[in-house]
Amino acid sequence: MSKTHYPGKKSMQGIKLDLFTDDDILKIDHATMDVLSTFGVQVSDKEGLEVFKKAGCDVDMDTKVVKIPEWLVRKSLATAPSKFYLYGRDEKNTLEQEHKGRVHFTCFGTGIQMCRYEGPGKYKTSDSDEKDLANCAKLVDWAENIDYFSLPVSARNWAGKGAQDVHEMLTSLKNTTKHFHHIDPVAENVKYYWDMAVAYYGGDKKAAREKPIFSMLVCPTSPLELSHNAAQVIMQGARNGIPVNVLSMAMAGGSSSIHLAGTLVTHNAEVLAGIVLAQIVAPGAPVWYGSSTTTFDLKRGTAPVGSPELGLISASVAKLGQYYGLPVFVAGV
Amino acid sequence: MTQKDLNERAIKAVMSYDQKAAAEVAKEAIASKADLVNLIQDGFTVGIQQVGDLFQAKKLFLPHIMAAATAMNAGVNLLSPELEKLGKSAGEGLGNFMICTIEGDIHSIGKDIVAIMLKVAGFNVNNLGRDIAVKDIVAAVKKEKPKAVGTSALMTSTMVNQKTFEELLKEEGIRDKVITNIGGAPTTQQWCDEIGADVYSENASDCVNKMVAVVKKK
User: Fold this and answer.
1) ipTM summary value
2) B188–A127 C-beta distance less than 8 A
């Protein structure tokens, strides 16, 4: 049989979930620009407000509402990189995060309890501690289907006794050679995370910046708010070249519209506001377009990260991230 | 129109989420010099409790509770000033419940749902808002002397302020004067025990069930 292929042949070696035409995406994009430029987002951080103001946004210092013009959003999207690398302590665990690139997997977080096996049919659930975190890190280090390590449980034995988030960073770095994604960063302590990364590179700040062994995740507060913590983590991350995952977790029917398209609009506005902030302080700063956005269960008052709508939203978010030329991070598969 | 008719109309107004009807019943009751305390206790309150029961039975959704509470407020807000003029009180129901999101935390949706559910259950709820400084909560407790105070935290980094709150209450010597209740995603029974809080709530329904039981026992 001839091995010659038909030229220009399109093939699909898998499945495809395509919810939008290009025009549909454009509609969500336009609605988002409308929200950002006419309604705005609330930024509960003084420095953040000043940064937005200096960059050309209409800022009300009393209401803390920042109106971001379309040109600034477009400019920021143009400077955000389409690809960056997550470094592990072991070089073979370094991976790329790329616009329309390969899919990678990480663990979900952050849990607060561990279910412990005590014997056949016997389990006990109790608060997670530093040892559990270390064990999870070792397991992920071994598991070849998990590409990098996100904080899976918190080291609660440090709660009220010390800087829990800083200990979580050290324990994670010590117990896996894979890249560490800090899901619970505290703005005031980012400098200590950075110090650890610099110390790992023997005091070489340039290396710590060029080969980040950790990254951070922050959530805007839906609807339409960047908290002091989120704004500060985004700015400090951007300044130090630490990749930042701006991940919204809007809950359709709770903290965003019950309609999924409407939810996508405010979700998009929240994430883009965070990305704009990163790009203002450091053009070219590595950022993800993130989502844990889901539905709000109006009967039980919970946020089910596993509802059918979450799948639809995540597929839509992937499209939006692709539309903006950014690496995407979504919850659930 | 008899008192019974008024009460039934109040129940119906709340159960059909009708603010206008609720306000009308209140106005008519005031005009006809009916028993306003009775209208609240055997009318509006009965209506909201039935809506609460239907929600617990998973027959209704959260927005129904909110709409019913709004309808009830439309009526009660008209009655309250009249009652004050008469020097009467609608009673405190199960007592005053102070609630807020703890210092450093701006997440308020869960806390607001709990506040509504507590109100439905019969507490007189004072919702202080979000990101309330620990010293301000202590000051508010001192001033208003609520029966219980609930603090919510959504992050492990802000949860620690619930511990600070317990410590400050002790320092001020008022820890035994108030029932403390904690909730929010990162909190657990273990955390509650560790910091010495009285009641841990996993969710809104859990909070209502436990708090009603605790208050009735005291």
Assistant:
1) 0.83
2) yes
